[in-house]
Amino acid sequence: PPAQIMFCTLNTHKVDMDKLLDAQIGLEDFIFAHVKGQRKEIEILKTDDVLGLTITDNGTGCAFIKRIKEGSLTDQTKMICVGDHIQAINGKNVSDCRHYEVAKMLKDLEKGQMFKLELVEPMKAFENLEPRPKGGTLPDVNISRGRGTLRLRTKGPATVEEMPSEVEKKAIEKVDELLETYMGIRDTELAATMVETGRDKKNPDEFAVALDEILGDFAFPDEFVFDVWGAIGDAKQGRL
Fold it and tell me: Is the whole-model pTM more than 0.70?
């Protein structure tokens, strides 16, 4: 059932956060769905303001851990793993929350206090599955000859579009890094949307207004918006 799917990876069955399905899919890509497995409860003493977690979500109510910072409080808690779905915090179900909401809840936890996480790890049913062989026979069609990708959107239908230019790719990568720095999340679709929003804007004020119209729920801080505008400009000027 779709509700059991935690996240998907492209061209690998492994829990590889560098291979997550995002807004764009190559027309020959293989998609692997990772489903919910074992549940676990962990109590943690928050000894640091920062937990060392980067959180993302699948867009349908499943926030999961994308990265754990080496040496962080979370890294020292060996039961917490990359790919784990955060189901509840101190008994509060967060399964319907977006990744930035979960990140804020964790950040707001009081330092020096114990808190409990309820996690669901991805099922490890395919550990012995070998990667698909290179090559192979495919129908003699031309859909893979160009640079088209399937673009998934939260609202509206999926569309086949041209892949981002090299300049836009660099801007998206930089904005994704800024999202992690400021908000503790990684989201290439969100980063791509922000880059697209700034494509035809002439100054940071226009960009901020446009961003607020389409992504106002995020309540981005002013300094973050300014840095995103700078990253888009740096990419256009070839400084990235």
Answer: no
